[in-house]
Specification:
- The protein is of the alpha/beta class.
- The chain has one domain: Rossmann fold, CATH 3.40.50.720.
- 47% of the residues lie in helices and 15% in strands.
- The longest helix has 29 residues.
- The structure holds nicotinamide-adenine-dinucleotide.
- The site of nicotinamide-adenine-dinucleotide (NAD) has 27 residues, from α1, α4 and α6.
């Protein structure tokens, strides 16, 4: 069977509900995966599943908002797998999640930490990984954003701003490093259900999310995000760059 990521090495920054599914899918498509998270045990769960299935992956402790930790993750990717063909920046600080809290109520500490981790963290990961791809003359960077980064909402102002910042970063990378062979794209999910989200979000909110989408039969799944990520890292995606791709069942529709 032709696996679309055979021979490629991908660093995934941020495990968890979506990140673990990304790792499992990319490895199943033949990629060698480095999966990093603050929570090493979660990354290890995915890596065990990958190795058991015959794939290649390693789990590392990563603080995506810390320059040295990010540099170590990139150095590990080079040492273990000879370099990088892809970076998927996926982690997020999500304390700004209460739709009842607006700019007048949000503590400035949550605002600051949201930007530090989500916006500055993606910047650091990009800055560290790009040189390895430029060196190869090819590469693909995928950022996990959110529908919150493109849609209006009475809440989540800091989170939405951080996700919009990631989209601006993506466009910079796509424009400046496209000539060097590096592509950059953003995936913007709406509600994507996995066990952690189920534990956090009341069932009424899941019903609301289903109602807000054009596809009513279900809400999003981590595998939906992983399928698009796999395409974006593959040669099948070699003419896709600079895009914010919504994987949200039609919750948002933009030109
Ligand atoms: N699940 C959804 O409904 C949904 C919707 C829209 C966007 N997203 C985005 O998808 C991505 C993944 O979210 P998820 O649903 O899998 O959540 P999750 O909580 O399962 O995973 C997020 C992971 O990020 C890690 N993390 C947080 N700060 C970190 C840091 N500084 N360094 C390294 N790792 C760190 C956490 O430990 C966690 O494992 C996020 O960027 C999120 O904003 C999710």
């Amino acid at each position: 069977m032709n696996r679309i990521l055979d021979g490629k090495s991908v660093l995934i920054a941020g495990a968890g509900g979506i990140g673990n599914a990304l790792a499992i899918r990319y490895a199943a498509e033949g990629a060698r995966v480095v999966l990093g998270d603050l929570d090493l045990a979660t990354a290890e769960e995915a890596v065990h599943a990958i190795v058991k299935a015959g794939g290649e992956a390693i789990a590392i402790h990563l603080d995506g908002a810390d320059e040295q930790s990010v540099d170590r993750a990139v150095a590990t990717s080079r040492e273990k797998f000879g370099g990088l063909d892809g970076l998927h920046a996926n982690f997020a600080f999500m304390a700004d999640g209460n739709p009842q809290v607006g700019i007048l109520e949000l503590p400035i500490e949550i605002y600051d930490e949201t930007q530090r981790v989500n916006a500055r963290g993606f910047y650091l990961c990009t800055r560290a990984a790009l040189p390895l791809m430029i060196e190869r003359g090819a590469g693909s960077i995928v950022y996990t954003s959110s529908a919150a980064g493109n849609a209006s909402s009475p809440g989540q102002v800091a989170y939405a701003m951080s996700k919009a910042a990631g989209q601006a970063l993506m466009r910079h990378v796509a424009t400046r490093y496209g000539p060097a062979g590096v592509r950059a794209n953003t995936i913007a999910p709406a509600m994507t259900l996995h066990s952690r989200i189920e534990a956090l979000v009341p069932p009424e909110m899941v019903d609301w999310a289903r109602g807000a989408a054009a596809i009513k039969s279900r809400v999003g799944r981590p595998d939906d995000i992983a399928a698009m990520g796999a395409l974006l890292f593959s040669d099948d995606g070699s003419y896709i760059t600079g895009q914010v791709i919504s994987i949200d069942g039609g919750t948002t529709m933009r030109p």
